[in-house]
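#help-structures
NK: newbie question, is this the right format to request a structure? protein is MYND-type domain-containing protein
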Amino acid sequence: TGTNHVFEDASEFAEKGSVQWNNLRMSVINLVELILKRPLTTVESQILLFPPVCSFCCVYKANNMFSCESCHSVLFCSREHQKSDSKHSGACKLLGLAFEIDTTRFTKRSVFLDCIKSLTPPNELPHSTELFLKQGNTSLSIENIMYSQPLSYALTLVFAINKIGKVSRNELIVHVVGADAMEAQALHTFPVVFNLLKLTHLRIVMIGPNLPNDIILPPEIEEKCSLVLISNKLYHEYVTSDAFTRPDVTVVYNCGFCEFMDMTEKDIWKSTLPFILNQRDCLVILTSYTAEESKQDLTRLCNANNHVASYNVLMANEENPFCSLCPLRNWE
């Protein structure tokens, strides 16, 4: 670039609007991947998506940068800009919580196991993740908040089924489409699914190109849960194969259908979307990170399934009371 720092001229792009600023960061990631001849890891991508520039003006000044003393998550180039950044002051507390969660992950490895042991599964679903975790206590520990991340997958599944009242059998086949390590980690919370839905057997088909192959079911549900892992096929390839079993429920967590819609080489959803709504008597559950993404994801799914004779949208773009309580930094 001819500069001392790859983001030294970032302010010029930020001044043109968020689209230009976002495009710059994605372009830098693509360039680095070309140079390294490999995809970046999550941590490496985060470094470039949240570069060390001033949160207020996006300027990089090598000897002037300092971090927010409260959240340790953003940088400023001057005290004046720190005081002027009203956008950050509104998010500072949540960013501080996110920072505490990240540091706890590195210092305490048994967080989830400790939470599982301390919680008593209720017989009925409470009204939110927070109430599920509090269990009569007045506040939540940092460990409880962290545990809400994997727990939200199980509770969201139960909530959607209960809300719609679509599935009443004691045996279910659930397809988890686009699954990766997050869905795999969430499996250890699935004993609550059995408890809350009164199931005798659950068959889970997890499918996704980034799915780990070393997933183990929790011991307490091994005998009543069948797990099928598919990482060498995309969902539309599985649906048209002899191994396909028709689902009662199809769930796509944090679906991101539109994330790469304008990048043909990365848009792997294009071929899969037409196969999601064409299963008869199947409840389809989608979650998205934001309300706007939810609208876009649902629109794209429906547009891709205009050949399907009949389907009903039973809930659209509603806030999920069983989402994770962990703050998520949105680089956009």
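mod (FA): yep, format's fine, and the tokens are attached above. The mean pLDDT is 88.
NK: thank you!
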